[in-house]
Amino acid sequence: MSAQSDPQHSKSISVHSKITLSDIQAKKRESLPITMLTAYDYSSALLVDQAKIDVILVGDSLAMVMMGLESTVPVTMEEMLHHCRAVSKGAQRALLVGDMPFMSFQADTAEAVRNAGRFLKEGAMEAVKLEGGKEAVPTVKAIINAGIPVMGHIGLTPQSVSKLGGYRVQGKSSAAALSLLQDAIAMESAGCFSIVLEAVPAPVAKIISERLEIPIIGIGAGPECDGQVLVYHDLLGLFDRFTPKFVKQYANLNEVIHLALRAYADDVSSHQFPADEHTYPIEEGELEKFLELAKEY
Length: 297
Ligand code: KIV
Fold this sequence. Notes:
alpha/beta, elongated, binds 3-methyl-2-oxobutanoic acid
């Protein structure tokens, strides 16, 4: 199948080729929505990649959905890199973005550059994402100067949940919306190749997407962004806690998996599993010899 015959793909993206930063930017120019999803290990990355999602984010949301923590704040660089390496083994096509965890880039610019570099060298990612607006400009510039592409993340930034007073919609007043636009422009001027915009009223997100040349990837930011991102576990119904209003759940895998696990437990309890087809045979003669030998023990 050629790229032209696949309506999911831009004229400039071939079905088999690796997605690059310029493919993502070309999609914005061609008004083709960019698809992005999180993945955290080999098997989820393989599935996301096979679904031809453009961008895989190894999000720090793994703190909550993979590690069961209350927020994204505690996750460490080592834990992020562990998941990045696994994702890189499963994904062939998607652009791979690693999420810089809390305090890996805020305290010191040189440390931020080194940690961003680790995502590429040790995590096999192709870009990093970091949360922050105007205040993050010097850090973003330093990372990009080191040759590392940066995706910004503004609006609801979960690493600052204490400062924001909870997981609240951002940019609801005219002043707050203007401040968000200024953050977006600052990130674009600093050299970000794209920005995630989280939990923002749809009309505000539309204006920001129209004003910027780089792609705006929305999550809870309405349909007029240049692309959409969701958390893998939310989309598939794999998370046991809250599901935000902006999530569309495409499957309830928790239920499917629960039924499969119960069926396994029932089969074992009732001696239905393993059956003959799951069992290795041994030649009759060898078995008899073994029985003789075993008598001595
Ligand atoms: O960590 C994450 O999964 C994210 C997305 C929600 C954008 O930052």
